[in-house]
Amino acid sequence: MAGGEIMSQNGNKEYPGKMTFFVFLACLLASSGGLIFGYDIGVSGGVTSMDSFLEKFFPSVYKEEKENTSTNQYCKFDSQLLTAFTSSLYLAALIASFFASTMTRVFGRKWSMFMSGIVVLMGATINGAAGNVFMLILGRILVGAGVGFANQSVPVYLSEMAPARLRGMLNIGFQLMITIGVFIANFINYGTANISGGWGWRISLALVGIPATVITLGSLFLPDTPNSLVERGHKEKAKAILSKIRGTNEIQDEYDDLVKASEESIAIKHPWSNIIKRKYRPQLTMALLIPFFQQVTGINALMLYGPVLFKTIGFGGNASLMSALIIGLVKVLSTFVSIAIVDKLGRRMLLLQGGTQMIICQIIVGTLIWIKFGTHGEATLSKTYARCVVSFICLYMAGFAWSWGPLGWLIPSEIFPLEIRSAGQSINVSLNMLVTSINAQVFLAMFCRMKFGLFYFFSGWVIIMTIFVALFLPETKNVPIEEMILVWKKHWFWGKFIEDENARVSNI
């Protein structure tokens, strides 16, 4: 066997290497890109529930909330212009991710992160100074473009820097930062909502500039990944970086595999057309379905409009913000669970368990709202009943936070061969942002029309995706990123596509 290379118990290659302080710091700094995404998810719902914000930009919604002229309590925040404020960010992220794909491939992962920070800083400045709806949405679009660059480059960066057996833990650092960002946004919203003069929302929107500054400056000091350096022809530098991040000089076997993968990548002139080939059908399917499934759990709809949702079903202004803050804290703590066990129990186990927990909790929440509010929402919640609703939403969030939340980013970032990695991650991010933007735009309208049934709707999707995982998602824990093809070859269904492609090539 080649020097330095060993085999794991499941027959996959294992390369020498350990968790070095250098790679830990690099991954921690890169993960700060998740703070931007998480902060923007969390800040939207809190800001759109503030009276001063609604009165200035959305007076019709403010009037409806105060005068309560609607015959249906579920519909008091149903405004397409209001939801456009939230959804515009994700549409911008969708478009930006395609440009980010090219930048990530041609210039490296770190410069995509740098671009992310610069654009978000511009958007944060405009949002903080917004005097009309145009400035408000323009700022959100710029922040969204930055989110697209960060979400495209950071997960790939983390997966390529991490040793195979620690890839899950380090990659989930991105999701951890997202959840911390949500929690910080909820905490800030709770404080700024009570600022006299009604300008606290400006602070909430502008403070996304802080994580943007961190990733802008931090990316200047980050090394690019060995994979990216080899791909761009800097082989000696890549070898030096690989030795540094693995903490050993016995990196020849891993380096040789990187070079081989790079040579195959260079031969691919059009990765976007190459990714649709039959031999990449497993990865393309996951790039499409995993982000779709992650979003149709309803998670971001609940996070984006958490305070609005709680306000709609009878929580007071401060109570709704506090409930969102509690849920954000639960999500942060639960993400640590995933970090601790993802490389031990594996991806499939967490997805199956988390999916089951989410199904049960969504059905219970929908039933609790139905019992109390019926179809018209003409009721108020007692403290005991309110705590019960929040408790089951917290359990739902916990299930998501240690399963589909982090793994929805981890799995797509680790399954693509180098020659289609940028294109595959771009598809993953774009679809994630597309479904998120649709959720953001239609959630309040769906809640108005479907009422408590909306929770049953989302639980139905979680049932479908849990079955999909059981049948079609192979386990990828501890598999070196450049050896991932072996996982698909062994799978009962996806192996057929690779075998058929190999047979076709051999007959030419």
TrEMBL record:
InterPro entries with a match to the protein in the record: MFS_dom (IPR020846), MFS_STP/MST-like_plant (IPR044778), MFS_sugar_transport-like (IPR005828), MFS_trans_sf (IPR036259), STP/PLT_plant (IPR045262), Sugar/inositol_transpt (IPR003663), Sugar_transporter_CS (IPR005829)
Record Gene3D superfamilies: MFS general substrate transporter like domains (1.20.1250.20)
This protein's encoding gene: LOC105042736
Domain Major facilitator superfamily (MFS) profile: 26-477
Name recorded for this polypeptide: Sugar transport protein MST6-like isoform X2
A Pfam family the protein falls into: Sugar_tr
Transmembrane segments: 21-39, 81-99, 111-130, 136-158, 170-188, 200-222, 286-308, 320-342, 349-372, 384-405, 453-473
Keyword line: Membrane, Sugar transport, Symport, Transmembrane, Transmembrane helix, Transport
Molecular function terms from GO: monosaccharide transmembrane transporter activity; symporter activity
Originating organism: Elaeis guineensis var. tenera
Predominant cellular place of this UniProt entry's protein: membrane
Localisation: Membrane
Domain of life: Eukaryota
Topology with respect to the bilayer: Multi-pass membrane protein
SUPFAM superfamilies the record matches: MFS general substrate transporter
